Amino acid sequence: MKARIIHWCIHVLDKEASIAFYERALGFHVAHEMGPDDGSWSNTYLVNDQSPFEIELTWNRGRTEPYANGGRDTHIAFAVDDMEAARKLHEDMGCIVFDNPRMGIYFIADPDGSWIEVIPGDFSFGE
User: Fold this and answer.
1) Of 22, 37, 40, 79, whose CB has the highest number of CB atoms within 10 Å?
2) Which residues lie below 8 Å from residue 25, measured CB to CB, with a gap of 6+?
3) How far apart are alpha carbons 127 and 125 in whole angstroms?
4) Is the Cβ–Cβ distance between 5 and 53 less than 8 Å?
5) The dihedral of CA 71, 73, 78, 82: what is its sign?
6) pTM of the full predicted structure?
7) 3-state class (DSSP) for residue 8
8) Which long-range contacts does 64-70 make (Cβ < 8 Å, 24+ apart)?
9) CB 31, CB 16: distance < 8 Å
């Protein structure tokens, strides 16, 4: 059997705020969207030019209670080519929630509180 990762799904309360966050913080844009004609829910797929990986934002009309998207230990990581520029952007956005200078990484949180690890493009685990 062969498998490859294709998307990460998170449930969001404010789809437009989430799209704007991922566009600004990580350079993603909407690739396509699906859902029923009545607009009761939608799946919005975001991509960037660095990989075919997608982020799926699942939105349900009328939902007001925050989702439990796996907690802080469940996260996705992005390697960036310019940590200094990324950190400056994320500081300006006010979305850094945990910093680990010893490892040279930090975490940001999206509008629904999902944690995203930011690592340098040349990151390794001491290999």
Assistant:
1) 22
2) 89, 90, 93, 95, 108, 110, 116
3) 5
4) yes
5) positive
6) 0.82
7) strand
8) 64/13, 66/13, 66/112, 66/113, 67/10, 67/11, 67/12, 67/13, 67/112, 69/10, 69/11, 69/112, 69/113, 69/114, 70/114
9) no
Phi, psi angles (nearest 5°) of residue 19: -60, -45
Provide DSSP, 67-127.
P--S-TTS-EEEEES-HHHHHHHHHHHT-EEEEETTTTEEEEE-TT--EEEEEETT--S--
Rounded to 5 degrees, what are φ and ψ at 24?
Answer: -75, -45
What is the three-class DSSP state of 48?
strand
Place of tokens 């991509």: 47
pLDDT digit string (tens) for the chain, length 127 residues: 576 778 889 999 999 999 999 999 999 999 999 999 999 999 999 999 988 889 999 999 999 998 887 666 678 889 999 999 999 999 999 999 999 999 899 999 999 999 999 999 876 554 4
Q: Which two tokens stand for residue 24?
A: 């600004």
